[in-house]
Amino acid sequence: MQFLLDAEQREFARTLDRLLAAGDTPAVVRAWSTGDHGPGRLLWGRLAEAGVFALAVPEKYEGLGLLPVELAAAFVELGRHAVPGPLVETVAAAALLDRLGVAAAAEEWLPHIAAGEARLSLCLPAAGPYALDADAADAVFVVDSEGEGDRLLLTRESGPVQPSVDPARRLSRPVGGSVVARGPEVTEAAAHAAGLAAFATAAQALGVGQALVERTTAYVKQRAQFGVPIGSFQTVKHQLADALLRLEFARPLLFGAALTLEPADVAAAKVACGEAVYAVARTALQLHGAIGYTAEYDLSLWLTKARALRSAWGTPSACRARVLADLG
Amino acid sequence: MQFLLDAEQREFARTLDRLLAAGDTPAVVRAWSTGDHGPGRLLWGRLAEAGVFALAVPEKYEGLGLLPVELAAAFVELGRHAVPGPLVETVAAAALLDRLGVAAAAEEWLPHIAAGEARLSLCLPAAGPYALDADAADAVFVVDSEGEGDRLLLTRESGPVQPSVDPARRLSRPVGGSVVARGPEVTEAAAHAAGLAAFATAAQALGVGQALVERTTAYVKQRAQFGVPIGSFQTVKHQLADALLRLEFARPLLFGAALTLEPADVAAAKVACGEAVYAVARTALQLHGAIGYTAEYDLSLWLTKARALRSAWGTPSACRARVLADLG
Amino acid sequence: MDLAFTAEEDAFRLDARAWLAAHLPAAPLPSLETAEGFAAHRAWERELAADRWSVVSWPEPYGGRGASVVQWLVFEEEYFAAGAPGRVNQNGINLLAPTLFEHGTEEQRARILPAMASGEVIWAQAWSEPGSGSDLASLRSTATRVDGGWLLNGQKTWSSRAAFADRAFGLFRSDPGADRPHRGLTYLMFPLDAAGVTVRPIGRLDGKPAFAELFLDDVFVPDQDVIGEPGQGWAVAMSTAGNERGLTLRSPGRFTAAADRLVTLWREQADPADTALRDRVADAVIGARAYRLFTYAHASKLAQGADIGAESSLNKVYWSELDIALHETALDLLGPLGELSDAASDAPAHGGWAEGWTFSLAGPIYAGTNEIQRDIIAERLLGLPKGRR
Amino acid sequence: MDLAFTAEEDAFRLDARAWLAAHLPAAPLPSLETAEGFAAHRAWERELAADRWSVVSWPEPYGGRGASVVQWLVFEEEYFAAGAPGRVNQNGINLLAPTLFEHGTEEQRARILPAMASGEVIWAQAWSEPGSGSDLASLRSTATRVDGGWLLNGQKTWSSRAAFADRAFGLFRSDPGADRPHRGLTYLMFPLDAAGVTVRPIGRLDGKPAFAELFLDDVFVPDQDVIGEPGQGWAVAMSTAGNERGLTLRSPGRFTAAADRLVTLWREQADPADTALRDRVADAVIGARAYRLFTYAHASKLAQGADIGAESSLNKVYWSELDIALHETALDLLGPLGELSDAASDAPAHGGWAEGWTFSLAGPIYAGTNEIQRDIIAERLLGLPKGRR
Question: Given the DSSP bridges, would you call strands A139-146 and A120-123 parallel, antiparallel or unpaired?
């Protein structure tokens, strides 16, 4: 029983934090939102060097093995710094290819994912018709149903961008593609990948929530009204206390899920992190007031993401159903 | 368009308020809770003299006609003073007997209801198996289904008391009875009575909520901690502001329903008043602290009723379904 | 007690409905927070005004119909039920005009109101400053007396509509030596294209320039554009603020129409057995109905000559929270489509849910934050002691 | 990072489970807030103690098993999962004992703890006074120095268990001239049947005498029943208060067991298509799981020698709100049965939902109101400035 990150894991998270803090991530996000993927690709490379994508790739494909605890710690930092791109989708695609066991596809993609040379998007039936940032991805994997069962397609046609409420999330319906595999193995691998995507999204959401609380706390300490910092008003305090509370009780569910990757545990983490991040975003906006409502103020980079992450890769309702269904 | 109580209606409510304030209603409630119905019967008589029960009885049966606006105003005051007894059930039974059109039963009971000489309890299929205060009632009307349709029974056997979370609400399953009527007329009259019961319960709930806000407001003005009245703490203020808000937006739904008695309007009022009173009770308890948690402090008379009224004669869930079902 | 409309009110409703049916744009106008949309909405104001539907509650000489409060509510119900465009001049109509009726001169009303009614002049509000949001009395922009008028200096922010509007109104500190912060303020109007005015549009969360910063550098305003007495601006503005928070800014028709659209969406999208969504849709319907009836009770009080006062804070908190809950429910009903911006080609036609949601999020902030409103409810309606907050 | 139990911990769990299975009362005991139930629960304490299960985390000399925090959590999981009786001596075990371990003398520990472990002496807490609830430092009851001890005078209230308990502990003002209200307090223990003590039971919402008022009139307490230094009572008590709010008062096993019972109830009572109820049941399951894992993280920190401190305020708010939501959901699942008290013959057997709900309502009030806890979270964990509240 040692239900805490160890020193090495904490240092890994700190390394990512430093790397991202040094990289002017807000500027990267704003570029990404306009379709300029250059700075995002550079950042992606640095994250790969730090080992982020190798955490989802087994050693035989030049990764570090699937390391869910480290993956969660990494995605918390990615969310905390609002890093754009198909991050969740790339690690979920890695999980899919690894589980599927089609050697050619695995050999073609997994080492490149680990090295940060491949950005993949992913479209699975349970999560709706849209692929994230397909226009910035090297390829999109799509699972659909046709005739006797599921099939896995690979396409490079991303389809026209459908703007999201989060300008940094560029959605589209991928077009066409060539068949990589068919049958129950695809169904099983897709379920595994959807679980990992929900898990990584939960971590990302928790990180977004953490950034929102950190920034709002700092803001209310310095913003004065009626001659005192607004952080001294009791309702401001209590709103932030509730925000912290939500995050701190979502966090153990996330790391508990990391230890099992059981669908019900992942679903519980996704509900808690997803509901928390949206509630925290509401609080962050309210306590910032008008300035929080502007696109030019960096807070918006996290605010707009919160709503999207609440539903991405598993709505709260679907996840609650899963929690009870799996109680046995 | 004159969506306000008129001077006469306001004066009627004030008369009831004075009557009940003068009558040491808390002592009446406490006696009632122990099964001592004497003081409650005396109070019932005074309410009848003031015209409360005649509001649910048509003129041809010595009542004032069904006057829903006045009835709502009256039940708000009854709730506000935590008056015990089968008040809702008696007026709903009056509505049932009037609508049913079985002359003998109407003639036997309605003039006595109007005069305050008959207390009735009522058990309808939609509202569960329990009759309220059947042990204090002169008779219980029960609608059940048997063979080809509904039937109306009259019984004087109240069955053993099943204590409620509100000590002043004495529940039981009535036993046996003689058949008064059968067939679709019973079904229709029962639906009408259930609607009136939901409506009167909504009004009673609103009154309970109003008393809770009034008492809590007075308490936080005088209770001091840390050298100041706790009513000067911002979170105390905001909790009470929210409580008032809930009541003030439930109130127009109640009186709107009084103007139509349409099932969807009644259901909307019942949801709003029922959810409001329970939320307000939570706030009242929290702001009183430990003293609010005691049976001997009068606040408890309203607190324990709040939960019961939220579900009585129409759960929030059933009422929400009804609101949408009737949108056409 | 009744909710009955008079024959006159019914006729008014049918007139409005018929006019709207005949004149409604075939397709939704572009967002009024864009240059193109602003122009389209200005044209729509002109069309409304041509048949006296832009300011129904004003007296006829200024372009209105002298409508009663109930008639105004009826008009709004019809307007929103028809899905008619947003009102680009609502700052002027809802905030400035009531102040002019109460504190303006006859000359000001004659000069300003008809041009407002016709959409010829679109107004922006200029209340906030970078340091003064909830604490409006701490304003620092100045009005300095000069021959024949005033020179304005300083900075205003969160000036809604200012990116594209013609004129603005706000408070300026004209007596820096006044003994209390809300004294020595003067209420002034100024053109946004005047010499010395710099308008910097600010994008809201979805990037649209829904408001702007205003930089004022020796902007000359003639005496005729002061409302009320110099130095009395706070008292003058408070009547407007009450109005902004109260009846007029958010008419019930807006929410009853939105709840109706939500029910339609629910029927199209949801599994009726999904009671969790059903309950939220029902709550939106109930909430909109409650707000409508609450407002009719207010209208009845107003008709009796009563003052609404601090009760308008109840309105503000209620509609702003209702609006958010309603739009969140819509986004959840939309499933994967709920993440799309309304600009997405896949977004549901005539939906506007994403923009509506974004707009709703500002509700608890502007026109007095809901925190301030709850303080007012507690202190003025419940009589709780003032604290330091 | 792991959640793995050692072989020793697993064996401990199986031991506890087997003992509970063999000894659990066949029927639920009467409510411990009644005279009859109090006696039955005292007998149960004796039975637990006979096999060293009453205070597993204490050192063996005092009747414990020297269990680690993790073992204690494991025991609690088994205890609540088995549906075992409430612990009538929890005031003593959870509040007083940690204080004695930290601040008591060896003589006090030897004299007091074994009798506590066996249920021979049941303890009541006596923190609050009529004027001192959240503002505990404003206590007015006094302890006056006399030869060989102290004389207590004043009034205590909300003294849980005091209606039937043997002894009580609390703070008394021993130096009325101290310069700050939380100085000059002394921590004392006293018998409830001592001369000068009057116990007036107080019924909680359901009428059961869950607490009492204590009137103290020259009650003599010998020096041996002072804990810590005279005048240092505040500091001594704070360690207990942190404990009360933190790990020990509400163990996760209580909520995971309650959530399991809720799921059973849901399966029995609810339409599975009713997603509104389903979502609330799922939230209870998720919430209990979150609280359990949060506590395991705390236990891991404690094992590393870290201090929990103000983080215990997070626990307090979380479990108290979880507990209410969970019981409200149960009452809604029960439909018409949800209004019945547990004393009703129709009430579901082994339910206890009504009493559990009543009990849950006190959660946000006692052990430091949730308002105070949120102030602590904001000020100590987030570093927000102190305000006047």
Answer: parallel
Question: Would the CB atoms of D358 and B167 count as touching at under 8 Å?
Answer: no
| Structural contact between residues D201 and D63, judged by C-beta atoms closer than 8 angstroms | no
C-beta atoms surrounding D215 within 10 Å:
16
Contact status, residue B55 vs residue B67, Cβ threshold 8 Å: yes
pLDDT confidence bin for A174, thresholds 50/70/90: very high
8 A C-beta contact, residue C257 and residue C326: no
Neighboring chain A residues of D304 at a CB cutoff of 8 Å = 4
pLDDT at C301 over 70: yes
Q: Could you report the per-residue pLDDT of A60-80, keeping only the tens digit for each?
A: 999 999 999 999 999 999 999
Provide the b/e sequence for A106-127 (b: ≥16 CB within 10 Å): beebbbbbbbbebbbbbbbeeb
Q: What is the pLDDT of residue C381?
A: 97
Adjacent-strand bridge partners of D191: D167
Residue listed under structure tokens 């205060």: B133
By residue count, chain B amounts to 328
In sequence order, what DSSP letters do the residues of B228-253 get, joined into one string?
EEGGGSHHHHHHHHHHHHHHHHHHHH
Instruction: Render pLDDT for D266-295 as a digit per residue (tens, 0 to 9).
Output: 999 888 889 999 999 999 999 999 999 999
Q: Tell me whether D203 touches chain B (CB under 8 Å).
A: yes
Q: Are strands D123-126 and D167-173 parallel, antiparallel or unpaired?
A: parallel
Residues of C with a catalytic annotation lie at: 244
Please list, in sequence order, all residues whose beta carbon lies within 8 angstroms of the beta carbon of residue B276, skipping any fewer than 6 positions away.
B205, B206, B209, B246, B247, B250
pTM of the model: 0.96
Residues contacting residue B328 through CB under 8 Å, at least 6 positions apart: none
Of the CATH numbers 1.20.140.10, 1.10.260.40, 3.40.50.300, 1.20.272.10, which one belongs to the domain with range A190-327? 1.20.140.10
Chain B, nearest residue to C319 by Cα: B249
Say whether D205 and B293 touch across the interface (CB within 8 A): yes
CA distance D155 to D214: 6
Residue A58 · residue A142 · CB < 8 Å: no
Tell me the per-residue pLDDT of B40-92, one tens digit each, with 9 for 90 and over.
999 999 999 999 999 999 999 999 999 999 999 999 999 999 999 999 999 99
CB contact under 8 A, D293 and A324: no
Distance between CA B195 and CA D306 in Å, rounded?
Answer: 60
d(CA B294, CA B285): 10
**Taking each helix axis from N to C terminus, what angle separates A263-288 and A184-222, rounded to the nearest 10 degrees?**
30
What CA–CA distances, in Å, run from B146 to A207, B105, C87?
A: 61, 21, 60
User: CA of A230: how far to CAs of A208, A222, A227, A235, C303, in Å?
Assistant: 23, 8, 9, 9, 40
Could you tell me if B289 lies within 8 Å of chain D, comparing CB atoms? Answer: yes
Q: Which of D285, D314, D387 sits opposite A245 (nearest CB)?
A: D314
Query: What pLDDT is stored for residue A328 in this prediction?
Result: 67
C377, two tokens: 């409810």
* The pLDDT of residue A126: 85
Task: Please report, to the nearest 10 degrees, the dihedral formed by the alpha carbons of residues B28, B32, B36, B40 taken in order.
Answer: 50
Cβ-Cβ contacts under 8 Å for C241 (sequence gap 6 or more): C367, C368
How, if at all, do strands B162-163 and B131-132 pair? Answer: unpaired
Whether pLDDT at B3 is above 70: yes
ipTM: 0.96
Which chain C residue's Cα is nearest to A173? Answer: C346
Domain architecture of chain C: domains with CATH: 7-88 (no CATH), 123-234 (2.40.110.10), 241-381 (1.20.140.10)
Residues C20-27: contacts with CB under 8 Å, at least 24 apart: C20/C78, C20/C79, C20/C82, C20/C84, C21/C82, C23/C47, C23/C51, C24/C82, C24/C83, C24/C84, C25/C85
Q: Does C389 lie at the interface with B, CB-CB under 8 angstroms?
A: yes
- Domain ranges for chain A: 190-327
